[in-house]
Amino acid sequence: MSENIPDRRSAAGLTAIARHGRLRRSKPWLTALKILGAAMAVVLVSGVSVAGYAVWKLESTIKTVTIVGETQGPPPELGAYEGGFNILLVGSDRCEDPNGCKDRSTELNDVTILLHVSQDQTNAVAVSFPRDLVVPIPSCPDPKGGSFYSMSAQPINVTLFYGGLPCTVLTVTALTGLDIQFAAEVTFSGVARISSAIGGVKVCVNGPVVDPYSGINLPSAGEYTLDGWEALAFLRTRHGVGDGSDLGRISNQQVFMSSLVRTMKSDGVLNDFGRLYNIATVASENLTVSNSLRNLNTMVSMAQVLKKLPLDRVMFVQYPGVTGQGGVYSGKVAPVKSLATALFDRIKADQPFTLEAGNTGVGSVEDPNKPVVTPDPQASGSPAPSLPPADLLPGVKGQSAADYTCSKAN
Fold first, then answer.
1. What is the model's pLDDT at position 75?
2. How does DSSP classify residue 272?
3. CA-to-CA distance for 172 and 174, rounded, in angstroms?
4. Residue environment code for 192-212, b if the CB has 16+ CB neighbours within 10 A, otherwise e
5. Nearest to 225 by CA among 195, 181, 264
6. Side-chain-side CA neighbours of residue 260 (13 Å)
7. Which residues pair with 113 in a beta bridge?
8. What number is the average pLDDT over the span 268-284?
9. Which helix (H) or strand (E) holds 92?
10. CA-to-CA distance for 281 and 4, rounded, in angstroms?
11. CB 299 within 8 A of CB 40
C-alpha cells in the first residue's frame, strides 16, 4: 500500500486535519454534528403526502453525488420498501461563510454514522465512528479526475477531504464489509435549523456541562430543551462531558439522538404535515445525497420502515475503539478489532442484540428519573409482530432508543 499523500493534504497541513475549533456564539452553524440533518431527511418525511409542485420543490433543492458502483435506474414507485438497507450519514464541516473560515481550510467528516436496517425490518443499528479512528483508506476517486493513493493508517475524518462522500463510503465499506446502497452528507446549518423546526429536543445532564470551546453552558444538573445553536454546541462538546475524549463525545450525542427518536415518535411530529414539510424542506436545502437517495419516494418508503420499529430495537452503538495507544494511534483512536468483528458479524447476520447495563460510554449515565416505559406501539395501531430474540453483545458501548440516559458532566 502506498503511503503517498495527495498534494492538497500537504498544502492544508496536519494542523488543519487535527483541529478542534471554538464555536462562536454569533455563528451557530459552527458545529461538528451535522449528521442528524441527514437522519431527519429519512425519518421526517414519513407519512407526508406531498404532490405536484411541493414534491418538485423539495427534490429540486437536493444536491447529488455518484458513489462508486452506483447504477442509475428509473425512479422507484412509492410503496413499501422491501428488505434491508445500509445508509451512510456524514456530517461535513464545510465552510459556508462567504468571507472564509479562519479556523480551517479543509473539509472533514467530523461525524460518520452507518445506519443498518435488517432484511426482515425488525431491528436497526446506527454505528458511530469516532472522527479520530485510525483506519486504512482505499484508493479513492479524485473529484477533479484520476484517483488518490491508498493509505494504511489515517483518521477516518480525512476521507471527505480526500475524495468527498464517495471516499467516505468506500472507506466504511472496506472497514465493515457491508455494501452501502445510500449515502447523505449534511452541511453546517442543518442541525440548528432542523432542531428548531422540530421544537427542540429534551436532554438530561447529571451536572454542569460547560465547554467554552463548543459554547455550551448548562449550569446545573437537570433537563433542558435544546434547539438551534445550543443544540449544536451540546452535540459538539467534548470538554464538557465524560473524560473529554472523542469517545465521550459520541455517547453524549447518543443521549440526544435517543431522545430525538422518542420525540419524533411520541410528540405528534410524524402526523403533523405542516411541521414535517417544513423540516423536510430544511433538510433538503442542507443535503448532498447519493443518486440512489435522490427520489423522495425512496426516502418516504425507507422512512415508513424506520417509523414502525420498536424503540428497543433501534440501537445506537460506538465503533469499538480505545485511546492511549502509541505509534500511528498516538493521540488518536485505535480500533478494538475483536469487538468490531463481533459487532459486525451480528449486523451482517441481522441478529438483534442487547448491550450490557450501564455500558453507555464515558459520556453518559442512566437517567435516575427515567419514566416507566410501556411497550412501543406500532404506528399503524396493529399488534406488535413476533420479534426474533435479542442476545447480549458484551463489550460494545451504546444504548437503545428506549433507554433514558443523561449526559455525564466532566
1. 55
2. -
3. 5
4. bbbbbbbebbebbbbbebbbe
5. 195
6. 25
7. 89, 128
8. 69
9. strand 85-92
10. 42
11. no
On whether the CB atoms of residues 283 and 44 are closer than 8 A, the answer is yes
How do 182-186 and 287-290 pair as beta strands? antiparallel
Whole-model pTM: value is 0.82
**Virtual CA dihedral for 45, 51, 56, 57, nearest 10 degrees?**
-60
C-alpha cell at 135: 483506519
C-alpha cell at 154: 489515517
The helix/strand/coil state of 252 is: helix
pLDDT of residue 212: 93
3-state helix, strand, coil in the chain (%, to 5): 35, 20, 45
Q: CA distances (Å), 186 to each of 43, 79, 125, 334, in order?
A: 15, 26, 20, 26
Does position 93 have pLDDT exceeding 80, yes or no? no
Residue-wise pLDDT tens digits, 297-348 = 777 677 778 778 899 999 999 999 999 999 999 999 999 999 999 999 999 9
**What angle, 0 to 180 degrees and rounded to 10, lies between the N-to-C axes of helices 190-198 and 273-285?**
180
Q: Taking the CA of residue 171 as centre, how many other CA atoms within 13 Å lie in the half-sphere pointing to its CB? A: 34
